[in-house]
Amino acid sequence: MSDVIRLLPDSVANQIAAGEVIQRPASVIKELVENAVDAGATDIRIVVRDAGKTMIQVIDNGCGMSDTDARMAFERHATSKIRSADDLFALTTMGFRGEALPSICAISEVEIKTRTSEAPMGTRLLIEGSKVIRQEAAVCEKGTVFTVKRLFFNVPARRKFLKSDNVELSNIMREFERLALINNKIRIHIDTGTREIDLRAGSLKQRIADIWKNSINMQLLPVNVDTSLVKIEGFVSRPEFARRRNPLQFFFVNGRHMRHPYFHKGVLSCFENLIAPDTQPCYFIKFTVDPQTIDVNIHPTKSEIKFEYEQQIWPILTATIKAALGKFSAVPSIDFETDALPVVPLKEGEVAEAPELEVRGDYNPFKTDSYRPERVDRNWESLYDGFRRESHKENSGFFGGRAGTEFPFAPRKTLAESFSESFAPVSSEAPSEAVAPSGTTLEFEKDLKNEVAPLCMQYADRYIISPSRDGLLIIDQHRAHVRVLYDDYLKRVEGMNVVSQSIMFPETITLDESQRAVLSGMEEELRKMGFALEYESGESWSITAVPSMLKNVNPSDIIHRILDSVSEDSENYGKESISQRNILERVALVMARSSAIKRGQHLSTIEMEHLMGNLFALPDPGLTPDGNPVFCILDEQKIDRLFGI
Q1: 361 vs 124 pLDDT, higher one
Q2: Distance CA 545, CA 523 (A)
Q3: What is the rounded CA–CA span in Å between residue 28 and residue 21?
Q4: 3-state SS of 196-242?
Q5: According to DSSP H, which parts of 99-164 are helical?
Q6: pTM of the entire structure?
Q7: Is 303 helix (H, G, I), strand (E, B) or coil?
Q8: pLDDT (tens digit, 9 = 90+) per residue, 250-295?
């Protein structure tokens, strides 16, 4: 048998690595800007065309590269950042693997112009699909000009599944925000073809104010602590400015952006009982630790970082945030001037009387013939009252219910007495007169068998429970209503039956760069769904009309939800033939979630029947539009297993 294992060519290996390192145009910008930061640049310019699909250019005034270094930089695992494995435990640079540039040139056309301060001439290098086309001397400024064209030109599957220009541009702007925040000492400029942003070098608070020009700097509280283990600095928002949608939450460690669910939970714990359960605070927090105590080499994007002392950093982080909240009076205080509850004093000579308790001296709980607990009667009567009230409500008839039906219950006293008598012990020594009248219990059981039980009931104000042919049906009321509303909204759009309702006092909404990029590409779809937005000035838009089918919904909140959903969750968004349909589906889903019955909302019998009737009239009632189950069925076998039968 001949040998079958062989070494892959560098071009193929680079394309494989590019699948992990370069996921979208925003990934290219991240890698190139981090290289510019490592090169000591103080001024970085980014130029983007067609959301990065046509061209991405990063210009910096860093140290530049020599002719040899410019050629070596595109070799796999070639880097100037580390020399040995020990350097991995003391990283002070953004890059270190030597994978970014080879991955970029493997899937695009790359042109680089670079010059060091000592060299009279620079060098120009042209690479296409990992193949060097030309290298020559060139006149250029000190620093590096890195141009990437035709991204994914030789990987059609990757290019095909890129999302639309608006979504990709939104991802670019989010990456730009992260890079600008952590490198606030560097001037950074971006030109997307439709908008330019120029951010001056300054403090972190100045950079936050420059990016989000909506007075957010007035909402922030400073956080600052310096210990031998960690230095924490940054800002958290005041509790009253917590957001329901699109909270600004950023963690940085040693100049690198990171995601850390453990520390995120620590920040949220500091705001317990200070903000509403469905809101989250904004925070911009930088950690500075010994590089030897963290590991950044666990993910190709270097966004997941392991801390050696995260258990010890947690209490430092939470104590610092709580101290900031307390220092600036952002926590609820105790009002010592409030009068206590009034207490009426006893009159002179009056003695407080304890409640009288009836005690039967001859009562023996082990003597069965005296067992006639009145508690049973009271419990049964209260249960019967609730059961009777629900049963006597007018039924809508969706599932064969009879409007105004009076169920044949026995009178309350007779029913309670018969229930108690059915549990009365029958002693062999007792006279026959002590036995319940003949037929009482049998007639009671006969009545129960002939009862028309309520069609459904609500449990925990979250679930609807109803008997069915296959078993016990349990329905999530919120998901069921989402399913019903979603299909109804799409049906109205397809039938051009959407009616807009003008808002008497238009509501102003503020959008950041990434949200405006998404909005510009979906204004037509929002109009079809019944929304009307008008541009005012700067970052402000006004909502002048909403769909008439939306009830009790904040227009600003639902627009934010729609933009977030489209930018983060849309699949196959890059296909122009189906992108419009995808947007409409996303908008319909957000509208349905916003208007649907909430968990914890009490429903009447009529409302439950109406919801069940609409749900099971749909062609696919079992799943929500995003694939979550709407109901489940407990059949007889499952119930038997619960009881060990």
Answers
A1: 124
A2: 13
A3: 9
A4: EEEECCCCHHHHHHHHCCCCHHHHEEEEEEECCCCEEEEEEECHHHC
A5: 100-106, 156-160
A6: 0.60
A7: coil
A8: 999 988 888 899 999 999 999 988 898 888 999 999 999 988 888 8
